[in-house]
């Protein structure tokens, strides 16, 4: 078995575990997987990690008044490309999530 095959199997096992969790589980497990594959606290880790931003008072609003946006990057992209767009939505009161 080569290293690429082993890495692929580990990634597939990780993805399978993610299917049953909520978004907080996804965020924390993604960061664990990124640290495992890219090393502890590298600048790359902070750049490519998915994020969730919650505007102040978001959960104080009535559910029908809450607004949220899910930002999804392209095939060769990362959440870093969505940062500025996400900040704009956050400033307008949206809950912002990226994957």
Explain briefly what this protein structure is.
Strand 2 (68-71), helix 4 and strand 3 form a beta-alpha-beta unit.
Task: Characterize the structure shown.
The protein is 47% helix and 10% strand. The protein contains 4 helices and 3 strands. Strand 2, helix 4 and strand 3 form a beta-alpha-beta unit. The longest helix has 16 residues. The model has no long low-confidence stretch (mean pLDDT 82).
Q: Descriptors for this entry?
A:
4 helices; 99 residues; three-stranded mixed β-sheet; elongated; mainly alpha
Q: Reading side by side through the largest sheet, how are the strands ordered?
A: 1-3-2
Number of strands: 3
* Strand fraction: 5-15%
Mean pLDDT: 82
**Discrete helix count:** 4
Biggest β-sheet description: 3 strands, mixed
Radius of gyration, in angstroms, nearest whole number: 16 Å
Secondary structure class reads mainly alpha
In N-to-C order, the SSE pattern is HHHEEHE
Anisotropy-based shape? elongated
Poorly predicted ranges (pLDDT <50, ≥5 residues)?
none
Helix content: 40-55%
| Termini gap | 31 Å
List the helices and strands and how they pair.
Layout: H1 3-18, H2 23-38, H3 43-48, E1 52-53, E2 68-71, H4 83-91, E3 95-98
């Amino acid at each position: 078995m080569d290293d690429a095959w082993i890495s692929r199997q580990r990634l597939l096992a990780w993805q399978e575990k993610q299917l049953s969790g909520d978004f907080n589980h996804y965020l924390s497990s993604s960061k664990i997987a990124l640290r495992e594959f890219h090393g502890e606290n590298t600048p790359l880790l902070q750049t490519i990690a998915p994020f969730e931003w919650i505007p102040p008072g978001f959960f104080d609003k009535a559910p029908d008044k809450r607004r949220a946006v899910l930002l999804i990057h392209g095939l060769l992209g990362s959440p870093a490309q969505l940062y500025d767009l996400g900040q704009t939505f956050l400033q307008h009161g949206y809950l912002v999530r990226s994957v």
